[in-house]
Amino acid sequence: MHRTHIPLLIIILATAIAGCAPAPAPAESSAGPELRQVSMRLQWFPQYQFAGYIVAKVKGYYEQAGLDVTLNPGGPDLVPLPLVATGKDTFGSTGADTVLSAREQDINVVALATWFQASPVAFMVHSDSGITGPQDFPGHTVGMFYGDNVETEYRAMLAATGIDRTTINEIPGDFSLAPFLEHRADIWPIYATDQPNTARREGARISLIFARDYGVQLMGDVLFTSETFARENPDTVRAFVEATLHGWQDAINNPRETVDLIAAYNPDLDKGQLTFEAEETIKLISYGAGKTCPGYSDLTVWESEAATLKSLAILTRPADLDTSVDNQYVEKYYQEKGVVCGITEPLNH
Q: Would you say domain 121-214 falls under CATH 3.40.190.10?
Protein backbone atom coordinates (compact mmCIF):
# COMPACT_ATOMS: atom_id res chain seq x y z
CA MET A 1 0.00 0.00 0.00
CA HIS A 2 1.03 3.65 0.03
CA ARG A 3 0.10 6.87 1.72
CA THR A 4 0.00 10.26 0.05
CA HIS A 5 0.63 13.19 2.39
CA ILE A 6 -0.64 16.38 0.77
CA PRO A 7 -0.99 19.69 2.65
CA LEU A 8 2.54 20.36 3.95
CA LEU A 9 4.15 19.25 0.69
CA ILE A 10 1.88 21.50 -1.31
CA ILE A 11 2.52 24.50 0.92
CA ILE A 12 6.29 24.00 0.55
CA LEU A 13 6.11 23.47 -3.20
CA ALA A 14 3.76 26.37 -3.78
CA THR A 15 6.43 28.77 -2.56
CA ALA A 16 8.88 27.41 -5.11
CA ILE A 17 6.65 26.81 -8.13
CA ALA A 18 4.49 29.68 -9.33
CA GLY A 19 2.58 30.69 -12.40
CA CYS A 20 0.17 28.83 -14.66
CA ALA A 21 1.46 27.55 -17.97
CA PRO A 22 -0.89 26.91 -20.89
CA ALA A 23 -2.27 23.41 -21.34
CA PRO A 24 -0.19 20.91 -23.34
CA ALA A 25 -0.80 20.98 -27.08
CA PRO A 26 -2.31 17.86 -28.64
CA ALA A 27 0.24 15.22 -29.56
CA GLU A 28 0.08 14.84 -33.33
CA SER A 29 3.66 13.90 -34.12
CA SER A 30 4.61 10.30 -34.83
CA ALA A 31 8.29 11.07 -34.22
CA GLY A 32 10.34 9.28 -31.62
CA PRO A 33 10.57 10.59 -28.06
CA GLU A 34 12.36 13.89 -27.51
CA LEU A 35 14.15 12.38 -24.50
CA ARG A 36 15.28 8.79 -24.16
CA GLN A 37 16.24 8.68 -20.48
CA VAL A 38 13.32 9.29 -18.11
CA SER A 39 12.41 8.21 -14.59
CA MET A 40 9.20 7.07 -12.96
CA ARG A 41 8.64 7.55 -9.21
CA LEU A 42 6.33 4.96 -7.66
CA GLN A 43 4.36 5.70 -4.48
CA TRP A 44 5.77 2.72 -2.62
CA PHE A 45 8.06 -0.25 -3.16
CA PRO A 46 7.52 -2.30 -6.38
CA GLN A 47 4.40 -4.48 -6.02
CA TYR A 48 1.30 -5.35 -8.07
CA GLN A 49 -0.07 -1.85 -7.49
CA PHE A 50 2.53 -0.76 -10.08
CA ALA A 51 2.36 -3.81 -12.33
CA GLY A 52 1.92 -1.87 -15.57
CA TYR A 53 5.20 -0.02 -15.11
CA ILE A 54 7.11 -3.10 -14.00
CA VAL A 55 5.84 -5.24 -16.88
CA ALA A 56 6.61 -2.50 -19.40
CA LYS A 57 10.14 -2.26 -18.00
CA VAL A 58 10.91 -5.98 -17.75
CA LYS A 59 9.30 -6.99 -21.04
CA GLY A 60 11.02 -4.22 -22.96
CA TYR A 61 7.96 -2.17 -23.92
CA TYR A 62 9.65 1.06 -22.87
CA GLU A 63 12.76 0.14 -24.82
CA GLN A 64 10.65 -0.66 -27.89
CA ALA A 65 9.12 2.81 -27.55
CA GLY A 66 12.58 4.37 -27.60
CA LEU A 67 12.79 5.00 -23.85
CA ASP A 68 15.33 4.14 -21.19
CA VAL A 69 13.14 4.17 -18.05
CA THR A 70 14.36 4.03 -14.46
CA LEU A 71 11.70 2.90 -11.97
CA ASN A 72 12.31 4.52 -8.59
CA PRO A 73 10.60 3.28 -5.41
CA GLY A 74 8.60 5.64 -3.22
CA GLY A 75 8.21 5.90 0.52
CA PRO A 76 7.58 8.37 3.35
CA ASP A 77 10.69 10.35 2.36
CA LEU A 78 10.38 9.73 -1.38
CA VAL A 79 7.03 11.30 -2.29
CA PRO A 80 6.32 11.56 -6.03
CA LEU A 81 4.63 14.99 -6.11
CA PRO A 82 7.60 17.16 -5.05
CA LEU A 83 10.09 14.98 -6.92
CA VAL A 84 8.20 15.33 -10.21
CA ALA A 85 7.17 18.96 -9.69
CA THR A 86 10.79 19.97 -9.13
CA GLY A 87 12.10 17.90 -12.04
CA LYS A 88 13.99 15.28 -10.04
CA ASP A 89 11.73 12.62 -11.61
CA THR A 90 10.01 12.74 -14.97
CA PHE A 91 6.80 10.87 -14.14
CA GLY A 92 5.12 9.83 -10.93
CA SER A 93 2.22 7.94 -9.40
CA THR A 94 -0.10 9.67 -6.92
CA GLY A 95 -3.76 10.04 -5.98
CA ALA A 96 -6.22 12.06 -8.03
CA ASP A 97 -6.87 14.23 -4.96
CA THR A 98 -3.17 15.15 -4.82
CA VAL A 99 -3.21 16.35 -8.43
CA LEU A 100 -6.28 18.52 -7.85
CA SER A 101 -4.93 19.96 -4.59
CA ALA A 102 -1.57 20.70 -6.19
CA ARG A 103 -3.17 22.50 -9.14
CA GLU A 104 -5.03 24.82 -6.79
CA GLN A 105 -1.66 25.80 -5.29
CA ASP A 106 -0.23 26.54 -8.76
CA ILE A 107 1.90 23.40 -8.72
CA ASN A 108 1.27 22.59 -12.34
CA VAL A 109 1.21 18.83 -12.60
CA VAL A 110 -1.13 17.04 -14.96
CA ALA A 111 -2.75 13.59 -14.79
CA LEU A 112 -2.02 11.48 -17.88
CA ALA A 113 -3.87 8.26 -16.97
CA THR A 114 -6.22 7.14 -14.20
CA TRP A 115 -5.47 3.59 -13.05
CA PHE A 116 -7.65 3.06 -9.97
CA GLN A 117 -11.10 4.13 -11.11
CA ALA A 118 -12.34 3.60 -7.54
CA SER A 119 -10.42 4.28 -4.37
CA PRO A 120 -8.60 1.32 -2.79
CA VAL A 121 -9.08 2.76 0.71
CA ALA A 122 -11.22 0.74 3.10
CA PHE A 123 -11.87 0.76 6.84
CA MET A 124 -11.17 -2.60 8.43
CA VAL A 125 -13.07 -3.83 11.49
CA HIS A 126 -13.15 -7.07 13.45
CA SER A 127 -16.07 -9.20 12.28
CA ASP A 128 -17.40 -9.60 15.82
CA SER A 129 -17.16 -5.89 16.68
CA GLY A 130 -20.73 -5.03 15.75
CA ILE A 131 -19.41 -2.21 13.55
CA THR A 132 -21.07 -2.42 10.14
CA GLY A 133 -20.78 1.14 8.88
CA PRO A 134 -19.87 4.73 9.81
CA GLN A 135 -23.06 5.00 11.89
CA ASP A 136 -21.35 2.67 14.36
CA PHE A 137 -18.07 4.63 14.58
CA PRO A 138 -19.09 6.94 17.48
CA GLY A 139 -17.66 5.70 20.74
CA HIS A 140 -15.02 3.59 19.01
CA THR A 141 -11.34 4.11 18.26
CA VAL A 142 -10.14 4.63 14.70
CA GLY A 143 -6.56 4.86 13.44
CA MET A 144 -6.02 7.94 11.28
CA PHE A 145 -3.32 9.01 8.84
CA TYR A 146 -3.67 12.76 9.05
CA GLY A 147 -3.25 14.96 6.00
CA ASP A 148 -3.44 12.24 3.36
CA ASN A 149 -5.92 10.51 1.09
CA VAL A 150 -7.16 8.28 3.93
CA GLU A 151 -8.27 11.26 5.99
CA THR A 152 -9.94 12.78 2.92
CA GLU A 153 -11.98 9.63 2.38
CA TYR A 154 -12.78 9.35 6.08
CA ARG A 155 -14.02 12.94 6.26
CA ALA A 156 -16.09 12.52 3.10
CA MET A 157 -17.73 9.34 4.41
CA LEU A 158 -18.59 10.93 7.76
CA ALA A 159 -20.01 13.99 5.99
CA ALA A 160 -22.08 11.80 3.65
CA THR A 161 -23.60 9.93 6.60
CA GLY A 162 -23.98 12.86 8.99
CA ILE A 163 -21.60 11.48 11.63
CA ASP A 164 -20.02 13.95 14.07
CA ARG A 165 -16.27 13.36 13.99
CA THR A 166 -15.87 14.56 17.58
CA THR A 167 -17.81 11.52 18.80
CA ILE A 168 -15.06 9.20 17.52
CA ASN A 169 -11.78 8.57 19.30
CA GLU A 170 -8.88 8.92 16.86
CA ILE A 171 -5.30 7.75 17.30
CA PRO A 172 -2.39 8.32 14.89
CA GLY A 173 -2.05 5.65 12.21
CA ASP A 174 0.83 3.22 11.97
CA PHE A 175 2.08 1.31 8.94
CA SER A 176 1.98 -1.79 11.14
CA LEU A 177 -1.39 -3.48 11.71
CA ALA A 178 -0.44 -4.19 15.34
CA PRO A 179 -2.77 -1.59 16.93
CA PHE A 180 -5.71 -3.19 15.14
CA LEU A 181 -4.64 -6.79 15.63
CA GLU A 182 -4.11 -6.14 19.34
CA HIS A 183 -7.55 -4.49 19.63
CA ARG A 184 -6.10 -1.12 20.58
CA ALA A 185 -8.08 0.28 17.64
CA ASP A 186 -11.52 -0.84 16.50
CA ILE A 187 -11.35 0.61 12.99
CA TRP A 188 -8.23 0.66 10.85
CA PRO A 189 -7.82 2.39 7.45
CA ILE A 190 -6.13 0.17 4.89
CA TYR A 191 -5.55 -0.41 1.21
CA ALA A 192 -8.00 -3.17 0.30
CA THR A 193 -5.62 -4.41 -2.38
CA ASP A 194 -3.21 -6.05 0.06
CA GLN A 195 -3.69 -5.47 3.79
CA PRO A 196 -6.85 -7.57 4.34
CA ASN A 197 -4.82 -10.61 3.32
CA THR A 198 -2.10 -9.63 5.78
CA ALA A 199 -4.62 -9.31 8.61
CA ARG A 200 -6.22 -12.68 7.83
CA ARG A 201 -2.81 -14.34 7.75
CA GLU A 202 -2.34 -13.04 11.29
CA GLY A 203 -5.54 -14.82 12.31
CA ALA A 204 -7.92 -11.85 12.31
CA ARG A 205 -11.52 -12.25 11.21
CA ILE A 206 -12.33 -8.99 9.48
CA SER A 207 -14.92 -7.03 7.55
CA LEU A 208 -14.34 -4.03 5.29
CA ILE A 209 -16.27 -0.77 5.09
CA PHE A 210 -15.97 1.24 1.85
CA ALA A 211 -16.78 4.94 1.58
CA ARG A 212 -18.10 4.37 -1.94
CA ASP A 213 -20.99 2.39 -0.45
CA TYR A 214 -22.11 5.69 1.12
CA GLY A 215 -22.00 7.78 -2.04
CA VAL A 216 -18.36 8.91 -1.83
CA GLN A 217 -16.93 8.70 -5.33
CA LEU A 218 -13.16 9.01 -5.13
CA MET A 219 -10.42 7.57 -7.34
CA GLY A 220 -6.97 6.20 -6.59
CA ASP A 221 -3.65 6.02 -8.43
CA VAL A 222 -2.98 8.20 -11.44
CA LEU A 223 0.07 8.67 -13.66
CA PHE A 224 1.22 12.30 -13.78
CA THR A 225 3.99 14.58 -14.94
CA SER A 226 4.66 18.31 -14.86
CA GLU A 227 2.68 20.42 -17.27
CA THR A 228 5.89 21.95 -18.59
CA PHE A 229 7.41 18.56 -19.38
CA ALA A 230 4.22 17.41 -21.13
CA ARG A 231 4.10 20.56 -23.24
CA GLU A 232 7.76 20.43 -24.24
CA ASN A 233 8.04 16.65 -24.75
CA PRO A 234 4.73 15.34 -26.14
CA ASP A 235 6.30 12.42 -28.01
CA THR A 236 8.14 11.26 -24.90
CA VAL A 237 4.89 11.42 -22.94
CA ARG A 238 3.02 9.57 -25.67
CA ALA A 239 5.66 6.83 -25.80
CA PHE A 240 5.66 6.41 -22.02
CA VAL A 241 1.86 6.34 -21.69
CA GLU A 242 1.40 3.86 -24.53
CA ALA A 243 4.13 1.50 -23.30
CA THR A 244 2.66 1.62 -19.77
CA LEU A 245 -0.82 0.88 -21.13
CA HIS A 246 0.68 -2.12 -22.94
CA GLY A 247 2.18 -3.21 -19.63
CA TRP A 248 -1.13 -2.92 -17.79
CA GLN A 249 -2.96 -4.85 -20.50
CA ASP A 250 -0.47 -7.68 -20.03
CA ALA A 251 -0.81 -7.54 -16.25
CA ILE A 252 -4.60 -7.71 -16.42
CA ASN A 253 -4.73 -10.45 -19.06
CA ASN A 254 -1.97 -12.57 -17.50
CA PRO A 255 -2.09 -12.07 -13.72
CA ARG A 256 -0.29 -15.30 -12.80
CA GLU A 257 2.58 -14.63 -15.17
CA THR A 258 2.74 -11.07 -13.84
CA VAL A 259 2.87 -12.28 -10.24
CA ASP A 260 5.92 -14.38 -11.15
CA LEU A 261 7.47 -11.44 -12.98
CA ILE A 262 7.01 -9.03 -10.04
CA ALA A 263 8.20 -11.63 -7.53
CA ALA A 264 11.40 -11.95 -9.55
CA TYR A 265 11.70 -8.16 -9.85
CA ASN A 266 11.23 -7.70 -6.08
CA PRO A 267 12.29 -10.93 -4.31
CA ASP A 268 11.14 -9.54 -0.94
CA LEU A 269 7.52 -10.12 -1.97
CA ASP A 270 5.50 -13.26 -1.25
CA LYS A 271 3.71 -14.80 -4.23
CA GLY A 272 0.60 -15.56 -2.19
CA GLN A 273 0.32 -11.94 -1.14
CA LEU A 274 0.97 -10.80 -4.72
CA THR A 275 -1.76 -13.10 -6.01
CA PHE A 276 -4.27 -11.54 -3.61
CA GLU A 277 -3.10 -8.06 -4.58
CA ALA A 278 -3.40 -8.87 -8.28
CA GLU A 279 -7.04 -9.88 -7.98
CA GLU A 280 -8.00 -6.82 -5.94
CA THR A 281 -5.97 -4.41 -8.05
CA ILE A 282 -7.49 -5.61 -11.30
CA LYS A 283 -10.98 -5.00 -9.85
CA LEU A 284 -10.11 -1.35 -9.33
CA ILE A 285 -8.37 -0.87 -12.68
CA SER A 286 -11.12 -2.68 -14.58
CA TYR A 287 -13.94 -0.83 -12.79
CA GLY A 288 -16.99 -1.63 -14.90
CA ALA A 289 -15.26 -4.64 -16.47
CA GLY A 290 -15.57 -4.74 -20.25
CA LYS A 291 -16.65 -1.10 -20.42
CA THR A 292 -13.81 0.83 -18.85
CA CYS A 293 -10.41 1.05 -20.52
CA PRO A 294 -7.43 0.84 -18.15
CA GLY A 295 -5.95 4.31 -17.77
CA TYR A 296 -8.99 6.17 -19.09
CA SER A 297 -9.82 9.37 -17.20
CA ASP A 298 -13.60 9.73 -16.95
CA LEU A 299 -14.11 13.47 -16.49
CA THR A 300 -17.50 12.90 -14.87
CA VAL A 301 -15.77 11.00 -12.07
CA TRP A 302 -13.05 13.64 -11.83
CA GLU A 303 -15.73 16.33 -11.56
CA SER A 304 -17.43 14.37 -8.78
CA GLU A 305 -14.19 14.03 -6.85
CA ALA A 306 -13.39 17.72 -7.29
CA ALA A 307 -16.86 18.61 -5.96
CA THR A 308 -16.29 16.37 -2.92
CA LEU A 309 -12.93 17.99 -2.21
CA LYS A 310 -14.52 21.44 -2.48
CA SER A 311 -17.31 20.44 -0.09
CA LEU A 312 -14.63 19.45 2.43
CA ALA A 313 -12.79 22.77 1.88
CA ILE A 314 -9.73 20.88 0.60
CA LEU A 315 -10.31 22.84 -2.60
CA THR A 316 -11.46 26.44 -2.28
CA ARG A 317 -12.54 26.90 -5.88
CA PRO A 318 -13.85 24.69 -8.71
CA ALA A 319 -11.13 22.59 -10.29
CA ASP A 320 -10.01 23.34 -13.84
CA LEU A 321 -10.07 19.84 -15.30
CA ASP A 322 -8.99 21.10 -18.72
CA THR A 323 -5.54 21.74 -17.27
CA SER A 324 -5.54 19.11 -14.52
CA VAL A 325 -6.26 16.07 -16.71
CA ASP A 326 -4.80 15.32 -20.13
CA ASN A 327 -6.65 12.33 -21.57
CA GLN A 328 -5.40 12.68 -25.14
CA TYR A 329 -2.69 10.01 -25.03
CA VAL A 330 -4.93 7.32 -23.53
CA GLU A 331 -7.82 8.23 -25.83
CA LYS A 332 -5.61 8.06 -28.92
CA TYR A 333 -4.21 4.68 -27.83
CA TYR A 334 -7.70 3.18 -27.65
CA GLN A 335 -9.06 5.01 -30.70
CA GLU A 336 -6.34 3.41 -32.79
CA LYS A 337 -7.52 0.03 -31.48
CA GLY A 338 -11.18 0.86 -32.21
CA VAL A 339 -12.11 0.69 -28.52
CA VAL A 340 -14.73 2.97 -26.94
CA CYS A 341 -14.08 3.81 -23.28
CA GLY A 342 -16.46 4.81 -20.51
CA ILE A 343 -17.60 3.76 -17.04
CA THR A 344 -21.07 2.23 -17.10
CA GLU A 345 -21.16 -0.40 -14.36
CA PRO A 346 -20.60 -0.24 -10.58
CA LEU A 347 -17.76 -2.06 -8.88
CA ASN A 348 -18.66 -5.23 -7.01
CA HIS A 349 -16.46 -6.02 -4.03
A: yes
Residue 286, judged by CB atoms within 10 A of its CB (0-12, 13-18, 19+), counts as: middle
Q: Say how far apart CA 200 and CA 248 lie, in whole Å.
A: 28
pLDDT digits over 136-166, tens only?
999 999 999 998 899 999 999 999 999 999 9
Domain 7-118+218-336 falls under CATH 3.30.70.20: no
Question: How far is residue 164 from each of residues 16, 138, 141, 218, 226, measured CA to CA in Å?
Answer: 37, 8, 14, 21, 38
Question: In the chain, where does the domain assigned CATH 3.40.190.10 lie?
Answer: 7-118+218-336, 121-214
Give the C-alpha separation, 203 to 136, whole Å: 24
For residues 288 and 131, give the distance between their C-alpha atoms in angstroms, rounded to a whole number.
29
- Rounded to two decimals, the pTM is 0.88
| DSSP letter assigned to residue 325 | B
- Digit-coded pLDDT (tens) for 121-139: 999 999 999 999 999 999 9
| Residue-level pLDDT at 23 | 40
